[in-house]
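Title: Prediction job returns without error message
Component: structure pipeline
Severity: low
Priority: P3
Assignee: unassigned

Description:
Job completed but the reporter wants confirmation the result is attached to the right record. Sequence as submitted:
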Amino acid sequence: MEDTKEILSRIRRLELRTRARVEAAFSGQYRSIFKGRGMNFEEVREYQPGDEVRTIEWNVTARLGEARGEAYVKKFTEERELSVMLVVDISRSGDFGSVDRSKREVAAEVACVLAFSAIRNNDRVGVLLFSDHVELYLPPRRGRRHALRIVREILFFEGKGRGTDVGGALERLNRLLRRRSVVFLFSDFQSPPFARPLGLTARRHDLVALPLTDPREETLPDIGTVRLEDAESGELLEVATSDKRVRKAFEDGVRAQAEALASELRKAGVDRVPLRTDKDWLPALQSFFKNRERRAGIAV
């Protein structure tokens, strides 16, 4: 485990590295895409030509307007404040990385970008870390110090669970969050079925999934018979990687899982932002923002 000084230095470097990328890539986009939770009731006033009939407050009209023959309407203002939740898989498989970063480190970088985008817009940001159970929950709050703590926990929190339970994490999140939020879900999705809680979360919140993958998880190198350990279950398995049929079956299985996940997310109406340990995450995030703008009819 790194000492406190090294941890703080690493977080500071991460903040500085991502800050410039946030300002260059997402200036103005974050706020235009992620709207507030809805409309706030402000006051009741007299009806004016052009007001929608459906905004008439009939109880107040009956009580105050009957004598003067006037109608009263409700006035609303758009609620601009956002709550952003970062839901991050910290199971053992997230520690894997065959290049220069692990899946967990990639998740921390992107989460850092999203956290600082939120606090720059005076929004609240929180985090839920999970494995085969919820490991840590920090409710949404404002401020740089809180955002830095979130990044620190994503990078260094030592969970007790080995496996991944996406459905359990989403069920817990739905019990914790009382108001509509923007939810970013980081995971490799090596989990038992989670279709039902995924759909429920997508209906209650603006849910965005960020699947994490590593190239070594997609193909087997031809290096003879090797003993592999499942990071989550600890199970040992001997694999004859020199056998073309074994390598093809492995690749086909990985491809089928990825297609099934993409289909599940589409069915639930969840946006997907694929992240890889061997590629820069910035183009994927930029593409997501641009697609959101396009669908919303916002000029880029």
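Comment from assignee: result matches the submitted record. The chain has a mean pLDDT of 80.
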